[in-house]
């Protein structure tokens, strides 16, 4: 029972950190720390990260409303989790070059609009078939490419400089957490 309470508390705390950082940085377009922290959480906490992402996504929906964007949040962060798990499963995250984490995070930021364009594909598909879906998705993606570039570049540099220190801090804290 004690372990469950500790895990619920941990998940709530780390989810709220994601949400608070997203909220604090919302005034700066496409500069965020959520991608970095999801990768760090994934490498340290493994499957617990799935619960953290679920709580974070739900908080975003409750706070900002359950618009069409929310559908994208239901899969993009879990996709980043899967990518992180693939990298962490085969490697010690601290042994991988910082450039690896920067490239993963940067590519994720760069592809964010394309991942959300999938929603527009299905919306366009309903009224215009394959052609309508492709046109809708492409228009959505192209209209936001500048923001994707900012997102990709900022994610790259954030991960380049902060992944290893954040991983080391969380890993150390979790060792202490697990002993108590």
TrEMBL record:
The chain crosses the membrane at residues 51-80, 101-126, 138-163. Keywords: Membrane, Transmembrane, Transmembrane helix. This is Energy-coupling factor transport system substrate-specific component.
